[in-house]
């Protein structure tokens, strides 16, 4: 029957569709927020540009605030698995999960796809990539264990492949059977002709491309995850699937043994794999080791971490979403421009400027956010993001765009936001500083307000290309209850092991769904803020430049007071805290209105020249005097005979709809059985009762599907 009902929908005519296209045509200009389903990360240390790929085939390049370029692969169903810059050329290569390679070029204001190559063949699934320092070739490691070379000018495969059987001639007998896929390929930081090739089963070889021979072999009894050269080029570090890493020496000829015993930072019990490791030098000249994963399986298998170790200093940065990739950057020049716009002359000079430089900042890409850590800061604090902020750190439930915001209001909001994050962020300059931006003042001051599931309202500056977070106002502290978290967790980082430190803002969980913001209104002239919530509460807040302690006025309005038989079956209202409350600089609540029944606020408007606020729910509306905190009037819009409690949750509505359909079918079958009995007992024509069809066929239109539900 549902198929029959859906089939009756009216399709718009061709003329109407043409008219809609003419009246409502739009063009994408800029993309705000964090990329959906991010899957790959890359960094160009010469141009100081970063690239992010997504599981939907999108490719985005970022530089200094205002420099953003977008590209899209032809097939949106292919995920970008790896991205690699050709340093200093403005070109980059993307690898997709369908084993296709794509060459992109950064033009003045766009990202253009130049060439595509589909790498096909048995056992030719690409498992690792490495761009030569010369920028002429791309090295392709495959799951079959072979290493191929792709000419970046013609984008075709060269004939000088490094086959697995040739590499295995000088290897131990145990690995001549099948060393596995090529897991990692790295050029020597001082001699580009020497390649470090790591295989999945734990074998690592140093291959000399000039003589086409294996000069060194390194054997580990654990599965290999990643490789990284040290600064001096005489040592390298390997990470493994048992949560350990090993440092090897290349200087001596007989170097099959590791320089040190394997290190399992969070052992001795079984640990997760260290998926990537970097060995860098800090600004103080000390060795700094950065790796992802390695947590104990039994206790912290659900943690997503990136650990940084420097001498006695040890921090495991804890993320709330899966870590995709990370890289380190060098110190930002005083003017913020790239250190060198043109490529060096020799591959060795290129390597010196692109590999194993001093680590000044750590950039980590997680599935739901980007986090930058200042490694020059004594406390390793995060860096404030000028863009790529996770708008959905808590689920977005509503939004409002405000134009022509008064300068005094905007300045007060910015000042409150800076005070709010004082001592939270490092003051270092933004490390991704490539590109140039034409300096021009925005023509209008625009703010975007987003309401969230956790009861917060966030203010964003959307006047330019970059969407910058300005301020966050939270309504949760106004209410009390067991479900509402106090957020007063004491951090005993020194006593805890592993030494976790929570970073990032993404938090997909809400303490109480009643806190969700359903409507938000900002007055651009006075700065007054009105927030409507999911529990029928309305918070009215004013903008203050100093902290304050005061008691919040409260009032209650019963919208269904004239409906004696009405029964509310939904959630309870929130409990307002009693007594005086202390508010920091910024928005401070002056009054809270509770509508009864406590259904979600569906509409909200405010007129601050008159000092009145009007709010609507599924049951009616109320007009309020916001200055004196008094109700002026209310109007119930329910049917006088409807006492079912409108405004129930969508889940209960769906259950009722299914139940009503079942009852309708039962009545239909009952009517048919009665018809057969009537036919047997009477020779006259059967008369079927209208009640048998009243619940099912009273309405067939798609637009009135919920009307069918209410009548069933």
Automatic annotation (TrEMBL):
Looking up Pfam families in the UniProt record yields: LLGL
Domain Lethal giant larvae homologue residues, every copy = 263-380
Residue segments, region Disordered? 667-688
Write the record's keywords in alphabetical order, separated by commas. Answer: Exocytosis, Repeat, WD repeat
Where is it found, in Gene Ontology cellular component terms? cortical actin cytoskeleton; plasma membrane
InterPro entries per UniProt: Lethal2_giant (IPR000664), LLGL2 (IPR013577), WD40/YVTN_repeat-like_dom_sf (IPR015943), WD40_repeat_CS (IPR019775), WD40_repeat_dom_sf (IPR036322), WD40_rpt (IPR001680)
The signal sequence is: none
* Molecular-function GO terms, alphabetical: GTPase activator activity; myosin II binding; syntaxin binding
Which segments show compositional bias classed as Low complexity?
A: 676-687
Its family? Belongs to the WD repeat L(2)GL family.
Q: What is this protein called?
A: Lethal giant larvae homologue 2 domain-containing protein
Which organism encodes this protein?
Answer: Diatraea saccharalis (sugarcane borer)
């Amino acid at each position: 029957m549902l198929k029959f009902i859906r089939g009756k929908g009216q399709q718009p005519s061709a003329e109407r569709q043409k008219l809609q296209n003419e009246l409502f045509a739009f063009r994408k200009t800029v993309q705000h927020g964090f990329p959906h389903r991010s899957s790959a990360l890359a960094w160009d240390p010469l141009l100081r540009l970063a690239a992010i790929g997504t599981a939907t085939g999108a490719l985005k390049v970022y530089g200094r605030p205002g420099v953003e370029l977008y590209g899209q692969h032809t097939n949106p169903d292919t995920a970008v698995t790896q991205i690699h810059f050709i340093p200093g050329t403005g070109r980059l290569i993307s690898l997709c999960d369908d084993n296709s390679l794509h060459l992109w070029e950064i033009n003045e204001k766009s990202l253009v796809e130049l060439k595509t190559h589909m790498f096909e063949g048995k056992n030719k699934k690409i498992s690792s990539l490495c761009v030569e320092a010369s920028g002429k070739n791309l090295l392709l490691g495959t799951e079959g264990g072979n290493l191929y070379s792709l000419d970046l000018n013609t984008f075709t495969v060269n004939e000088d492949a490094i086959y697995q059987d040739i590499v295995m001639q000088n290897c131990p007998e145990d690995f001549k059977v099948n060393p596995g896929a090529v897991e990692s390929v790295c050029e020597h930081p001082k001699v580009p002709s020497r390649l470090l090739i790591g295989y999945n089963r734990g074998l690592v070889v140093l291959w000399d491309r000039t003589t086409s021979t294996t000069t060194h072999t390194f054997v580990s009894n654990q599965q290999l995850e990643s490789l990284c050269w040290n600064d001096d080029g005489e040592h390298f570090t390997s990470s493994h699937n048992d949560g350990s890493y090993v440092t090897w020496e290349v200087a001596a000829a007989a170097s099959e043994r590791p320089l040190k015993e394997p290190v399992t930072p969070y052992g001795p019990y079984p640990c997760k794999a260290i998926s990537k490791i970097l060995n860098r030098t800090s600004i103080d000249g000390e060795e700094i080791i950065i790796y992802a994963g390695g947590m104990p399986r039994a206790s912290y298998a659900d943690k997503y971490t990136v650990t940084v170790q420097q001498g006695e200093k040890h921090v495991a940065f804890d993320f709330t979403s899966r870590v995709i990739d990370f890289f380190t950057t060098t110190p930002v020049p005083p003017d913020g421009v790239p250190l060198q716009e043109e490529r060096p002359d020799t591959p060795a000079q290129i390597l010196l400027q692109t590999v194993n430089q001093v680590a000044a900042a750590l950039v980590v890409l997680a599935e739901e956010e980007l986090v930058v850590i200042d490694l020059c800061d004594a406390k390793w604090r995060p860096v404030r993001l000028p863009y790529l902020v996770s708008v959905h750190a808590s689920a977005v439930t509503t939004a409002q765009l405000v134009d022509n915001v008064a300068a005094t209001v905007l300045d007060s909001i910015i000042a409150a936001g800076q005070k709010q994050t004082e001592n939270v962020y490092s003051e270092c300059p933004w490390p991704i500083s490539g590109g140039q931006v034409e300096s021009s003042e925005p023509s209008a001051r625009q703010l975007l307000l987003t309401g969230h599931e956790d009861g917060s309202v966030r203010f964003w500056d959307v006047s330019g290309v970059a969407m910058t977070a300005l301020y966050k106002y939270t309504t949760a502290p106004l209410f009390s209850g067991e479900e509402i978290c106090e957020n007063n967790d004491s951090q005993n980082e020194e006593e805890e092991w592993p030494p976790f430190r929570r970073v990032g803002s993404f938090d997909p969980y809400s303490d109480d769904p009643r806190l969700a913001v359903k409507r938000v209104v900002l007055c651009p002239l006075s700065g007054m803020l009105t927030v409507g919530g999911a529990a029928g509460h309305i918070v009215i807040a004013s903008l203050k430049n100093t902290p304050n302690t005061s008691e919040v006025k409260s009032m209650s309005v019963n919208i269904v007071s004239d409906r004696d038989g009405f029964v509310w079956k939904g959630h309870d209202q929130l409990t307002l805290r009693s007594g005086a409350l202390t508010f920091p600089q910024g928005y401070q609540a002056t009054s809270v209105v509770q509508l009864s029944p406590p259904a979600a606020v569906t509409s909200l408007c405010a007129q601050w020249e008159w000092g009145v606020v009007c709010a609507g729910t599924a049951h009616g509306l109320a007009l309020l005097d916001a200055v004196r905190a008094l109700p002026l009037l209310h109007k119930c819009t329910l049917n006088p005979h409807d006492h079912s409690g409108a405004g129930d949750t969508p889940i209960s509505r769906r259950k009722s709809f299914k139940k009503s359909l079942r009852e309708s079918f039962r009545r239909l079958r009952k009517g048919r059985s009665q018809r057969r009995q009537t036919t047997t007992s009477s020779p006259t024509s059967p008369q079927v009762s209208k009640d048998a069809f009243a619940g099912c066929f009273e309405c067939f239109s798609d637009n009135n599907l919920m009307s069918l539900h209410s009548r069933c």
